[in-house]
Design a protein that fits this description.
Number of strands: 4
Shape: globular
Strand content: 15-25%
Strand order of the largest sheet: 1-2-3-4
Organism: Halobellus rubicundus
Protein name: DUF7964 domain-containing protein
Structural class: alpha+beta
Number of helices: 3
Order of helices and strands: HHEEEEH
Helix content: 10-25%
Distance between the termini: 57 Å
Radius of gyration: 16 Å
InterPro entries: DUF7964
């Protein structure tokens, strides 16, 4: 069974993402969203990276990009290419997405203290 076939036909909960990350078949499974349920997913092994997106028309997940890793292609390049492919699949222009509103750009802030 492939990774895509093993996914439920709905967004993933954070707990399901943790289970996917612990799967022996994958080295890495990370969402492109900052919070909440996952509808865009980057998965990687030693030899490839795949960008997966929840496809409402297909009632399930689809592979929107696959990048083979080799001496000329590092994992980070594959992850970036797959994230851009997921954004395009969703109808967003990866070139127009700023770092502040890009998926994965969420940085939790520590609340300021009134004490000095």
């Amino acid at each position: 069974m492939s990774v895509v076939e093993s996914l439920p036909p709905r967004p993933l909960d954070p707990e399901e993402l943790l289970q996917l990350n612990s799967a022996d078949a994958l080295d890495l499974a990370v969402p492109i969203e900052d919070e909440g349920r996952v509808t865009g997913l980057l998965v990687a092994t030693e030899s490839w990276v795949k960008g997966l997106a929840l496809d409402g028309e297909a009632d399930g997940w689809t592979v929107v990009e696959t990048v083979d890793l080799d001496a000329d292609t590092e994992r980070v390049d594959g992850l970036q290419a797959c994230e851009a492919a997921i954004l395009r699949f969703r109808g967003d222009d990866p070139e127009a997405v700023t770092p502040a509103d890009a998926p994965g750009a969420y940085e939790p802030a520590v609340p300021e203290s009134d004490e000095e």
